[in-house]
Amino acid sequence: MTATPAFVPAQLVGRQAVLDTLDGFVRRLEDGVSDIAVVTGPVGSGRSAVLDRVVDRARAAGLAVGVARCSPRESQLPYGAITQLLGTLCRPSRIGALASGIGPTSRPTDTVARMCDTLLTLSAGRPVLLAVDDLHLADPHSLRRLVDLIHRARQGAVLGLVTSPVPVRQVLDAAGARPAAPSAVHTLRLDALTTAEARSVVEARVGHPVQRSVLTVAGVAGWSPAVLHAVADRITGLGRPLDTDAVPQLIAAARTAWSTRALTTLHGLPKNVVALLRATAVGGHQLEPARLAALAGLDATAFADAVDALRACGLLADTDIPRLRHPWFADDVLAGMSGPERDRLHRRAASLQGQEGARVGTVADMLGDVTSLVRSWTASDLAASSRPRHTADVTTASLRHSLCEPVTEAERARRLIRLATAEAVTAPQAADGRLRQVMLRHLSRETWPDVLNAADLLLSRGDAETARWVIADVHQRALTKIPDEELRPLRALGRLAHKEKGGLPLVAPPPVHSDRTGHPAQSAVLAWTLATRGDERDRVLELARTALDEPATVPFMCRIAAARALLSADDIPAGLDRLDAVAADARGADALAAAAQALLSRAEEQIRLGHGEEALRELTAATRALPPASWHSLLAPRLAAAEVLALLRCGRVDEARRASERARSRPEGHSVTTAFLLYARAELALIDQDPARALLLLEECGRMLRAKRWRNPMLIPWRSAAAVAHHHLGAAATADDLLVKEREVAERWGTPGAFTALRARTLGALAGNGVEIPRAYAGSVPSPRSSHDAPAALPDVTAPAPDPLTPSERDVADLVLAGLVNREIARRLGLATRTVELRLTHTYRKLGVKGRAALVAHLRARQEDD
């Protein structure tokens, strides 16, 4: 018996457990025991490498081995896989003899059947390994014969080993090749590599240690060995030490490697699976599962099978609602369709999204809630809405058709941008792909204004992560083509994208060059950067005003950043006016996402001012400019947070709760915008008398903001809310420290008065929704350096001692004194039992008593003293 080699090749790192299991099957085969094993795993996980390893192991043991490697081309040849198996098991002369012995009038099926029977006879009495790589790409004729062959061969010693990214059951069902009798199948899945394993693979491939940060690039496509090999080969090809400028190239290599393998996998998927993948590429972020199934033309069973297959392949994210694992893969999926097919799919998606009963033009589209500002659609509304949508379809179709005409590169770039703006509502992912195409494929001196416009529009969609690497790539290639003066707006957009999404600084030259104020766009981004840090308020005002005085030369997103800087510096009238101007200009240029972002920023400022109804009106305008389903997942948390907080400022707590819950149904990207939603949910938790959960949310919110150096409390006063949570949990000293720290930052920024008003409005809104605010927090908290400005007042010994309990804690204590148990108190006060328990805990701590009996004794003694 042959021993298992101790060395595992680098490409098989992380696969030892699967290899050990398969080696066990080979040993069982040597002992005359048959098995069927399926190696599965997502795109690029190394299934073929594992199969090759087992084939080498079996040949080294002297076993008969038949190997078939299926491919999209082979899938078009009848009996292609079976022919490969015969060719590797028999000598060529033997196959020729078999073929010559078959009469000329025999049918192909009879020929293959006789060859298979001969194969069984030849292999009788000796162990045989039948290995088929990428079974899902095998032709249907081979699949049916292979099932029969393995089933009949099991009267001898046969190990059937196949690889497939999709469940074998679905592959066989699609080919009508179900076995006559069920057989036990061992399924072995290859999962994503760990960080340590991934680093080992890359270092083994390049032959030297690599920076840990490089591995974040491989995360773009899921830590698969194939992607890691592509990244390693790109590192080797650079021929120089890694630096920031190399990151975009590594990301591009990773995406290309993953996408190439995913498209190869796509060729062998059943029709229902392909239909769902295409439907998800078009409407994955707009349609719920039932409508997504309708768009793909699948019933419930076929839809569930297709979802399982796509998730097994690693093409869908692990979410309740089907979503592409990588949004950028939608471009590749749609590129594989003909123009008429794409148009039909887009029209069906638009009709499903806008069918009767849906509400369009408000945040309720995404959050599932209807405010007083929204009315249900009527039949006349639907009839009226169908006209512009039909017009948009015609415009989109004509623009797509015009791209086939011979035009100059500059004209093609402009048409792509016009098509992207037309598709922004019905097919936002496709629109993003058009913008990336302009930036990456049409970079020249003549098209530079269009490239810059495309970068601005791409960033306005909220996908800061994609915008970062595309801008970095474009900037690197433009250094030798475009004058430095014209490159500065692109650097500003790259710096702005970096602020919204963390990670490695991708823009070259290094970000320090973005702080140069030689261009108004750079002044705008620098103003916003300093404003988020809470530094140099006077300079922020000067920079922002300078940038906004030259709107024609500044991209929309930089103008929005400058206006937000003015708002955080307490220049509210100017900030709101400039945002209004941006929204108007963006609408005129069909830059719907930029207009929506400007209006969202206006809504957030109205929330900070305590104007809930005005904020809801701004949000309605924002979602009329761009329907919520078209907002990117990295920007959607800000929209959801604004909706929740606006409803809370209006006292509509139940609607805010529903809005928060329904926001969970949409995927949330990891960016600084998530901090806004965490804060909104924390306010809800305080209102729901759950300070522990509120504190967890607020601490995560603060962590995310600090990680991005967003220290200015004028943006999110998370410490004020956290102080309330600490107070309810009995940590008054920690709460006071938070308030003092927040106040110090506001004073250093230069807006102590505006911040005091913001804190008062925030705490007042919480109090108005039933949250108990400590009396000491009602006004501003004095800073440490002002505590000695005046002598302390002498206490009034004649005044009665203040009651240490809050009114709600006093209510609970009185009912305890009356003899009610917690459940009865909760029913009497309309509270949850847990809330009663929490208030009693606070009461025990404040009064220095231990337990219920001690509390009753304390209260009775106090009554007697009174």
From TrEMBL:
<dbReference type="GO" id="GO:0003677">
    <property type="term" value="F:DNA binding"/>
</dbReference>
<dbReference type="InterPro" id="IPR041664">
    <property type="entry name" value="AAA_16"/>
</dbReference>
<dbReference type="Pfam" id="PF00196">
    <property type="entry name" value="GerE"/>
</dbReference>
<feature type="domain" description="HTH luxR-type">
    <location>
        <begin position="798"/>
        <end position="863"/>
    </location>
</feature>
<keyword id="KW-0238">DNA-binding</keyword>
<feature type="region of interest" description="Disordered">
    <location>
        <begin position="778"/>
        <end position="807"/>
    </location>
</feature>
<dbReference type="InterPro" id="IPR036388">
    <property type="entry name" value="WH-like_DNA-bd_sf"/>
</dbReference>
<dbReference type="InterPro" id="IPR027417">
    <property type="entry name" value="P-loop_NTPase"/>
</dbReference>
<dbReference type="Pfam" id="PF13191">
    <property type="entry name" value="AAA_16"/>
</dbReference>
<dbReference type="InterPro" id="IPR016032">
    <property type="entry name" value="Sig_transdc_resp-reg_C-effctor"/>
</dbReference>
<keyword id="KW-0805">Transcription regulation</keyword>
<dbReference type="InterPro" id="IPR000792">
    <property type="entry name" value="Tscrpt_reg_LuxR_C"/>
</dbReference>
<keyword id="KW-0804">Transcription</keyword>
<protein>
    <submittedName>
        <fullName>AAA family ATPase</fullName>
    </submittedName>
</protein>
<dbReference type="GO" id="GO:0006355">
    <property type="term" value="P:regulation of DNA-templated transcription"/>
</dbReference>
